[in-house]
Write a structure and sequence with these properties.
The chain has 175 residues and is mainly beta. It has one domain: Chorismate lyase, CATH 3.40.1410. The protein has three helices and seven strands, in the order βααβββαβββ. The chain has a seven-stranded antiparallel β-sheet with strand order 1-5-6-7-4-3-2. The longest helix has 7 residues. The radius of gyration is 16 Å and the shape is globular. Bound molecules: P-hydroxybenzoic acid. P-hydroxybenzoic acid (PHB) binds next to helix 2, strand 3, strand 4, helix 3 and strand 7. Belongs to the UbiC family. Keywords: Cytoplasm, Lyase, Pyruvate, Ubiquinone biosynthesis.
Length: 175
């Protein structure tokens, strides 16, 4: 059965490669290839995942995401708000084709409040095919096509106003 649920992530204008370069301080965040959770942890005391939604949806319920992923009868969706010291810093939406959940990746169904990055970056076989950047109004966003043991998943992240990406002077851990 398809889950008709509104995404926590509203329409994003994805940037094409022809668009002018990103501001340097923004590029440093959006093009981060390591764990965003670990990067954020350097700027706060405590990260918490507020799990908004997890479940399967059918192919037709995807947005333009369907053009970026192989066709599958079902996809696992995970939507979270990442909060740092009780402030929302990031919206995350992960779309995982059913076939990606085979073998050890079955564990992705049981992440709950564990940050996705803890699973991804503990894998010995994680590759990032690309990062595409975008805008949601005044906010910056990015999406990454990742491969776990050559099985794809798409991660979209929107950086909320309180995120350190917007605060170029607040770049060190608070005392
Ligand atoms: C998640 O737990 O789903 C998650 C965590 C951190 C991100 C994106 C997604 O940057």
């Amino acid at each position: 059965m398809s889950t008709k649920k509104k995404s926590i992530i509203k329409c994003i204008d994805w940037r094409s490669i022809e668009e002018p370069d990103l501001p340097l301080e923004v590029a440093g965040w959006l093009m981060e290839t390591g764990s965003m959770t670990e990067r954020f942890e350097r700027h706060c005391h405590k990260i918490i995942i507020d799990l908004k939604h997890e479940g399967f949806i059918e192919h037709q319920a995807l947005s333009d995401e369907k053009e970026l992923l192989p066709e599958s009868p079902r996809y696992w969706i995970r939507e979270v708000v990442m909060c740092a010291d009780d402030e929302p810093w990031l919206l995350g939406r992960t779309v995982i084709p059913q076939d990606t959940l085979s073998g050890p990746e079955h564990a992705l169904l049981n992440l709950g409040k564990t940050p996705l990055g803890r699973y991804l970056f503990s894998s010995k076989d994680l590759k990032r095919d690309y990062i595409q950047t975008g805008r949601q109004g005044d906010l910056w966003a990015r999406r990454s096509l990742l491969q776990l043991s050559n099985k794809p998943l798409l991660l979209t992240e929107v950086f909320l106003p309180a995120s350190p990406l917007y605060c170029h002077s607040r770049n060190t851990k608070l005392a």
